[in-house]
Structure of Amidase domain-containing protein:
Amino acid sequence: MLGHARFLVGKKVPLAHSRCLSSFSPGRFDPYNALTATWDVPTGGEGTLGGWSVSIKENIAMEGVPTTCSSKMLETRITSRNNCDELAMGGLNKHSLFGPVANPAPYEDVSNPDFTMYRPRAPGGSSGGAAAAVRANLCRVYVNVLTARSIGTDTGGSVRLPASYCGVYGIKPSYGMISRWGVVSYADSLDTVGILARAPEDLTTTFDALASPDPHDATCIDMTMRAKLAKDVSSIVSRLQKPLHGLRVGIVAEMFPKELHPEIAEITDDVLDTLQRLGATLVDVSFSVLSKASSAYYATALSEASSNLGRFDGVRYGAHYEKPQSTFFNTIAANRSANFGEEVKRRILLGTFALTSEAWKSHLRTSIQIRNAITHQMRACFAAPDHRVLSQERSGADVDLLVYPTAMCPAPRLDEETASEYAQDVLTVSANLTGMPVLSAPASRRVPVDNERLPAGISFQAQWGHDQLLLHVVETLARNSDVLAT
Ligand code: GLN
């Protein structure tokens, strides 16, 4: 499994800094470059999603349609998909074979954005195309539907960060809740399939259609466990008096760091005040290990990725290098060097290093310890049990859910130098490390930046398996107040 970095040659890979990128150009299918292709298949199914148009991220396989993961390594010609960061690696959707995606949120007329008035901003990543397509209602162009929905993947925040930057709803389900059959793995122990939509009700209908056991995915939760989780959620919901009396909401101290944009802190406070007005009790909670979440996430994700991406060698999978090389290994090295993008190569190198025997102790083993500590601390704050373990400690906070901002700042411009792309998702990665579900909802109040007003998302996180509670609370909050965007 080790040593995939050996098969990378050629150009030096510069160290991680988000590149200044001014080369945005509108796509062939839409002004934001959110869609990589489209097709006109009448898909009038009979099920709950019959008649709806859904766009699917480039890293999820579909029958009869090639999957490129926005990578030259898997480049093909046809299809209809959402642009994304190559192989789902990134936080701004700047690293893609198809070029960067622009964020539709700043433009009043989404079908006709004026890029000279407001220079394009990043949609967030890696599911930037999916969020931009929902925000700009791009699916409506092809099928006559009211709102658009997209399916993306979230390994460390890739559904929630774009949802926050583009001002749409996005859910990262519990680990195991929605089948990952057909997903091109980035980091298997963190990967989930999520949903993006304009309204919380649309998340719910799509979630209900997707959240079921799947014989093709052994990590997918079985029916017995689903029944147990449904019972737990309905006992919480039936305990609540209308609208949200009796709900216990945890405010996580570490999720409000001093670098958090002050307007986003205020917007989150507005939402917390509203929850309280609707009857919720606010409880302060603190998780001391949370500051180490980002380091643990990247060591884990990149180690798993370096192993997963070993299969793209241009022999069995992936693009071929035109010139034959002197040896089999040189051919693989040439294929991988020519066809992976810079960011993916950087991550393969870092991940392979973390897996070496010299680095294992200081990197991967430490990450596993941090991950266990975060999971232990977070699960203990909930009143309901985490059914993945036989017994658990309780911290006494006894909350039903946690509320915190989704992102540290509003969407940066595509041509703006950001300090580090890896810092974009400091607030999102812990949910993947713990496997817990999170729903990011767009606040109605926007963040004033220059003379634009940009969206910000608020995250609602619950005990593992309590996805339906998040959907219930967010729908109730949207119906009973004006703090969330509709
Ligand atoms: N930005 C994170 C990363 O690049 C998350 C990506 C994801 O969730 N797919 O690893």
